[in-house]
Amino acid sequence: MIKNLKFLAAACFAALAASQAAAADNYPSKPITIILPYATGGSADMLARFAAQAVQSELGQPVIVEAKPGAGGVLGTEHVARAEPDGYTLALTASGTMAVNPYVYKLRYKPLEDFKQITVLVDLPFVVVTNNEFPAKTLQEFIDYGRKNPNKITFGNAGLGTQQHLTQLMFARAAGIQINIVPYKGSSPAMNDLLGGHIDAVLDNTGVQTPFIKAGKVRPLFVTNPERVAALPDVPTGPQAGMPGFSAVAWFGLAAPKGTPDAIVEKIQQAIAREFAKPDMQQRLLDLAMIPRASSPADTTARVKTDLDAFGKIAKEVDLKPL
To answer: Which N-terminal residues, if any, form the signal peptide (predicted)?
Structure first.
């Protein structure tokens, strides 16, 4: 009886494996949709279209980008978690939706359990900028000013509970200063107040800030990437500016619903890797202050776990309660 059960289990497993292999061989046989969990028009939208172009070029089927914004990326991401695991509905993911939102919202999805991570597409470092009238002109002067004037520096971000917010908290602890964090509903209102002199500084991603920096409208202090950013070659890293060991980098990626066959996940990842390795695509991304990655599914899963642990620690320290 036991032998029969073992034989039956083995036969079922073999049939499932054969079925998944056949599905992967025929994939894709119809258009693919990438769900953008944010509003159109920003850097995430542009990147989703680059990814769509890459997959379409390699796999030969149309790839559509569909925006489903809301709740900091939660609504669109949750939609993909509940989609059919057949490789035809993918999520543009981010360190925010995968590693920060679990501590900000009461989610109906689990980043590691409900998704097959496909790839990290790009890293997107942060940069700290001040208005041009702020007295500190370097990171060290900023820190010295903060130590002499506790809670006096008004430091804006794109929203309460965002990765920018948690990174500011990490920065303040590493620098040993107390700052007055001012959350906004997005980068635009924060920048309006910074340019108007109503706040002293902003921490934001390099993609948003690069045009302001190049136009001389704000003063950059440092980038949070371990290496300098190609689009901002004159802006030092934290260690170069006098803050050893500090780095904090956002990222965007792709994920599929759990249960998607591994062979399909690999097929999509390899398509992205080939296209993102091309010099023209690399230059387009670098010009937007994005750093191309195209990591493996295993490395992407490991990165989600590492970030979940890191942001979980800071969320616990500040007693952040999910909404």
So the answer is: 1-23
3-state secondary structure of 143: helix
- pLDDT by residue for the chain (323 residues), tens only, comes to 555 545 554 544 544 554 555 567 899 999 999 999 988 888 899 999 999 999 999 999 999 999 999 888 999 999 999 999 999 999 999 999 999 999 999 999 999 999 999 999 999 999 999 999 999 999 999 999 999 999 999 999 988 888 999 999 999 999 999 999 999 988 889 999 999 999 999 999 998 899 999 999 999 999 999 999 999 999 999 999 999 988 899 999 999 999 999 999 999 999 999 999 999 999 999 988 899 999 999 999 999 999 999 999 888 888 888 87
Tell me the C-alpha to C-alpha distance, in Å, between residue 302 and each of 116, 117, 158, 212, 218. 12, 9, 27, 34, 36
Bridge pairing between strands 32-36 and 89-94: parallel
Segment 17-20 long-range contacts (CB within 8 Å, at least 24 positions apart): 20/261, 20/262, 20/263
Q: Can you name the residues that pair with 204 across neighbouring β-strands?
A: 127
Q: What is d(CA 109, CA 98) in angstroms, rounded to the nearest whole number?
A: 10
DSSP 91: E
CA-to-CA distance for 72 and 155, rounded, in angstroms? 21
**Which residues, listed in sequence order, are joined to residue 34 by a DSSP beta bridge?**
65, 90
- Residue for token pair 């007295």: 135
Which residues are registered as beta bridge partners of 257? Answer: 115
Rounded distance between C-alpha atoms, residue 122 and residue 139, angstroms: 26
Q: DSSP assignment, residue 1? A: -
Q: Model pTM?
A: 0.86
Which two structure tokens, joined as six digits, stand for 38?
A: 């944010």
